[in-house]
Amino acid sequence: MDGGNETDVTYFILVGFSEHPKAQVIFFCFLLMSYLIILIGNSLILFLIHYDSRLHTPMYFFLSNLSFLDICYTSSSVPQILINCLVKIPSISLGQCLAQMCAGLYLGVAECLLLAVMAYDRCIAIGDPLRYSVRMSFQLCIKLAVASWVTAFLLTVVPTLTMPLEFCGHHMINLFSCELLAILKRACNDLKFYEWLMMATSSLTLLAPFTFILSSYGRILGAVLKMHSAEGRKKAFSTCSSHITVVVIFYGTAISAYMIPQGKASQDQDKIISMLYGILPPMLNPLIYSLRNKDVKEALKKLMGEKNVS
């Protein structure tokens, strides 16, 4: 189509597994179960942190932000994907698609920044424990959390809203949800500059926080090695183990989804990997922090009515 005869696109068809009915049923069951685990697990973490005064510390303040973010992140796309699994033609309106794309970008970058802030918190806690309460004051925690949310908004939503997007013709997207690069490929106008800009921004928002996290844990390792007490070293590693595990899962799935070249012969596999990036970290985060964290386990026991908590 050319010029004024172009047909404007008002919706997209998200192919997903619609061509494989049996696989789609299995996928629906897995996704529904995962979403319920995410909602229950992260809501429980939020409630426990609010409920137990022992968890009113910087570490758990940032964890509450992470749990809230994970609920929002999955809720921005999973309900729509579940609905599409039940209909014959899995479609989504243009407005919903763009909103889903912006929300996914925003919350994904916010999680990168929050994980970096949490690494900084652990670095101060272990590297300078005597002044920890002073350096990580409540006011600073609020500022760091707000800075993570606002910076993510400025790096993702603002540039996306300024793009001169015009869609026409082909409206099939071979994914489960609306993702930036797939949407840009459906635009009629030339967006090469914006594609380059968003790729550069994405690399920066992934690599810069990850580099900061590695640097923070390098300092933590140095501080731990200087400790003379084996018990002190064990306690230091224990306080960091949950965060390290979350970082490995988050960046591991992100690299698998977006940095490893995708082959044309394995499109269904690539779609699953991309979907797991949005499901695994939010689903495993509350399990990791509840199973590996003594304070959270004690708060859960207290909530369940066990008086004798060791």
TrEMBL record:
It comes from the Eukaryota. Residues 41-289 form the G-protein coupled receptors family 1 profile domain. It is a multi-pass membrane protein. The keyword RNA-binding does not apply. Keywords: Cell membrane, G-protein coupled receptor, Membrane, Olfaction, Receptor, Sensory transduction, Transducer, Transmembrane, Transmembrane helix. Pfam families: 7tm_4. One of its GO terms (biological process) is detection of chemical stimulus involved in sensory perception of smell. It is found in: Cell membrane. Gene3D superfamilies: Rhodopsin 7-helix transmembrane proteins. PANTHER family: OLFACTORY RECEPTOR. Belongs to the G-protein coupled receptor 1 family. This is Olfactory receptor. It comes from Monodelphis domestica. The lineage of its organism: Eukaryota, Metazoa, Chordata, Craniata, Vertebrata.
